[in-house]
Every structure is written in structure tokens, then in C-alpha cells.
Write a structure and sequence with these properties.
Elements (H helix, E strand, L loop, with lengths): L2 H22 L7 H47 L21 H10 L9 H10 L9 E2 L35 E5 L5 E6 L26 E6 L2 E4 L3 E3 L1 H6 L4 H23 L9 H4 L1 E5 L8 H10 L10 E5 L1 H7 L11 E2 L10 E2 L3 E4 L12 E7 L3 E6 L3 E5 L8 E13 L5 E5 L4
Parallel strand pairs: 1-6, 2-13, 7-16, 8-11
Antiparallel strand pairs: 3-4, 5-15, 6-15, 8-12, 9-10, 12-16, 13-15, 14-15
């Protein structure tokens, strides 16, 4: 853990202690005005905690990318060959090598004729054009459509609105099955949990053979549903005039759109011509007594509604919307201990709820209202996400887009809960 992350974690620890101290001041003798003031201070503190968590995650991501770059450099040196800077469409030029942006603009000037391009430009384009992992209105030089990026005296920093969209497409959360083709995958299932051994037998008695104890097998299927972002038009003027490489910038934005789309489908998909989202597929674990609130005891009941066999795996966790988490952070158990724990900064232990980690999923219900599935708990590895290849971001120039170009994203996946006993939900009262 680098020094910067340690400093941020230490700040989080201090914020958590101060937030808890404020909540501890609220008891039966605290008047309503003071209670609201202390709760507002607590909420403000936890918002700062979340802001710092975002900084930490960005630091970790940068560290990961830096490690990848260093690994590629070390590999290149070991093989005694030039370092390839083209890790993607936005790779920076090295020692005079043509950048992806320059190559793409040369492609536009050649009106899509690859033969009219320099061989080195074609090579750069080929490296990043078709494989970027991660609507039909024209992006033009008018301000809101992209013109704010055209410099008159504009800093080359783009302020991009962000919104969290994970975590269901993350292979570290669920179980990932990655295939090159989209043929149906069948998942055999068996539930023998209600079966026990037969009756006690006397000496020499023949074993019963009436089929009454046969295991019942079943199966679930994973298909491959395709989704896209629709085409996004980019005018030639914007491509030429913008201080940013618009094809790379818009590719990033469309990649995030695909991420939000996938997370939503894998969370609340209907299962009809679409993935069976984990919330949709989960079974009821606990029904809250209230339509507008949940209690610490009800969360404990949710945990124990899941069989102990599903409560010890590495991917056992809670999942909820951030606004529901905000409410949970204020809850205590019967002994006055907070259910939400920050974790151990020094040991790198993440924040937890009742000893289990949790995931924020913004596709889940954001408000605690009547008949809402506000929380999940269980072994998330029992949810299978089938991915066909990688998400694609493509750029195209033809008569419909010329002299500009179009950018679109495409993704193909499915999801299904293999064992419905493994993940259960907490639902509020109907009325």
C-alpha cells in the first residue's frame, strides 16, 4: 500500500470515529432539533468518507496501470525490442511514432481508403481500431454537442460527469464464464438438501429400492443476448477542431454506457429475452415490518435466512444501493454496536457489514418504500455471468456519416442464478 493510500485510509478512520461519536450523542433525551443536526453532520462525514474511497480506488487503478506499463517495458527490454506504446486507441506517440489520433485523421482525409494511407499509419490504426475492451445524433461543434472541447483558450482537461455502475459485470464478484461463441450453455443443478438416509435396518433386511430417495437433477441455461449503444455521430469539423481525440474520448464514454447497461440487466433483468437479474432471481429471506425502514435485527435475520453452507465462501457479501447503505450505516445491533464497520486500515481489511463485505449497486432500489427489494445477501459466486468475447467499440465512416464518422458500442452476455437458495433478499412490507 503506497503512502498516499495510507494517508487516505487514515483520514477515513478519523472520519468514521467522528461520525460514530455524533451518532452516539443521540439518545432518548436528545431533542429533535439536535438529533437532526447530528444526523446531518454524520451524513456529511460519510459523504466525505465515500469521496476519499473514490480517490483510493483511482489511486489503486493508476498503480495497476503503472504496473502493467512497467511489465510491458520490462518484457520489451528482455526481448531486446522497441517498447510498443500502443496499449489502446489513445496511446501516446513515442520517438516520433504516429499517434492513433493522427492515424485516424489520416484515415478520414483518405475518405476511408486504406490504400491511400501511409503503411505506418495503417499499422497504428490496425492496433487500436477494432479492439477496445472495456445514440443517432450528430456530435458537432455546437457547444453541448461537443463544441465545448474546441479550443479558443480551453485547457486540455475535460470535466466528465461520472456515475458508479458496477459491480455485476466484475468477475471478482460473480462467477464468469467467457466464451468465443454464443451457443447455449447448460448448467446441471441438483438440490438434495431435504433428503436424509433411509430407516434403520435390522440384520439381513433387504435395502429399500422404491426410488423414493433418488436424487432429482435439473438444469439452467445461459444464452447470449446482444445489446448496443446505438450510433453516435461525430462531425468532421469536431474531429478536426477538438483539442481531444474525439474517437478515443467517445469510445470511453460508450464503454461506460455498456458497463451501466450490463450491470442493470444482470441486476434487475427480467429473464424474458434478457438475463435473469440477481435481484429478480433471488428468493425472499426476510420481510421488514415497516414500509419505510429496515432494522438491524431484520438484516441479521436476512443473513440467517441463508443456509450456513452458503455463508462461508470468499464471495459471500451484501449488495445494496448507496442510499440504502447510508441508512444502514446508522443502525446498531442489540448490544449497541454498529452493524457497519470501517475495517482495519493497517491490515487492508475492507469495510464490512456484520462481518461480511458489501457491494454498492446503483441498479438496485434506491428508496426504502413499500414492497421494495432493498438488500441482497448470500454467495454471489452462485450467480453466473456468461460473456461472449469482449465488448466492442467500433468507428465507421460511410455515406451516412461522411465526412465525419460514427462510433457505437456492442456487448453480448447473459446471467443466471444457479442456486436460488444461495442469494436471498430483504423486502419491505407491502403496506
Amino acid at each position: 500500500m503506497n503512502t498516499r493510500i495510507k494517508e487516505l485510509r487514515a483520514k477515513q478512520e478519523q472520519i468514521t470515529a467522528e461520525a460514530r461519536e455524533r451518532l452516539n450523542q443521540i439518545d432518548e433525551s436528545t431533542d429533535e432539533t439536535r438529533s437532526k443536526e447530528l444526523e446531518a453532520q454524520h451524513d456529511k462525514a460519510m459523504a466525505e468518507y465515500d469521496r476519499l474511497e473514490g480517490q483510493i480506488q483511482r489511486e489503486l487503478k493508476v498503480a495497476e496501470l503503472e504496473a502493467g506499463i512497467k511489465a510491458r517495458e520490462d518484457e520489451a527490454r528482455a526481448k531486446n525490442r522497441p517498447i510498443d506504446p500502443a496499449a489502446g486507441p489513445a496511446a501516446a506517440p513515442d520517438d516520433g511514432e504516429i499517434s492513433y489520433r493522427d492515424a485516424f485523421h489520416e484515415y478520414l482525409r483518405a475518405q476511408g481508403q486504406l490504400g491511400a494511407m501511409r503503411p505506418e499509419a495503417r499499422a497504428v490504426l490496425a492496433r487500436g481500431y477494432a479492439a477496445v475492451e472495456s445514440e443517432a445524433r450528430a456530435q458537432t461543434t455546437s457547444n453541448s454537442a461537443g463544441g465545448y472541447t474546441v479550443p479558443s483558450e480551453v485547457a486540455n482537461v475535460l470535466i466528465k460527469s461520472m456515475a458508479a455502475w458496477g459491480p455485476m459485470y466484475d468477475p471478482g464478484v460473480t462467477t464468469e464464464i467467457k466464451t468465443t461463441g454464443g451457443g447455449q450453455i447448460l448448467l446441471p443443478t441438483v438440490n438434495d438438501t431435504a433428503s436424509t438416509g433411509g430407516a434403520s435396518n435390522g440384520e439381513g433386511v433387504t435395502l429399500t429400492d422404491d426410488g423414493g430417495k433418488d436424487a432429482a437433477f435439473g438444469q439452467k441455461a445461459l444464452g447470449a443476448y446482444s445489446f448496443d449503444t446505438e450510433w453516435l455521430r461525430v462531425s468532421k469539423e469536431l474531429a478536426d477542431d477538438s483539442i481531444f481525440a474525439m474517437e478515443a474520448l467517445l469510445g470511453d464514454l460508450l464503454g461506460e454506457r455498456l458497463g451501466r447497461l450490463a450491470n442493470s440487466q444482470l441486476t434487475v433483468g427480467t429473464g424474458s429475452s434478457a438475463p435473469n437479474g440477481i435481484v429478480t432471481a433471488s428468493t425472499a429471506g426476510k420481510t421488514a415490518a415497516s414500509t419505510t425502514a429496515i432494522t438491524g435485527d431484520e438484516i441479521i435475520d436476512l443473513v440467517h435466512s441463508v443456509d450456513p453452507a452458503y455463508r462461508s465462501g470468499p464471495k459471500v457479501a451484501f449488495m445494496m444501493h448507496d442510499l440504502v447503505l447510508a441508512a444502514v450505516r446508522k443502525l446498531k445491533d442489540g448490544d449497541g454496536n454498529y452493524l457497519w464497520q470501517m475495517g482495519d486500515v493497517q491490515k487492508g481489511i475492507p469495510a464490512s457489514l456484520l462481518g461480511h463485505r458489501y457491494y454498492v449497486n446503483q441498479a438496485m432500489e434506491s428508496s426504502i418504500a413499500a414492497a421494495k427489494k432493498v438488500m441482497l445477501f448470500g454467495d454471489l459466486s452462485k450467480y453466473y455471468v456468461r460473456k461472449v468475447g469482449d465488448p466492442l467499440i467500433g468507428a465507421l465512416q460511410d455515406k451516412d456519416f461522411w465526412p465525419g464518422f460514427g462510433v457505437a458500442g456492442w456487448i453480448r452476455f447473459d446471467g443466471e442464478l444457479g442456486d436460488t437458495a444461495a442469494v436471498k433478499h430483504l423486502i419491505t412490507a407491502a403496506s
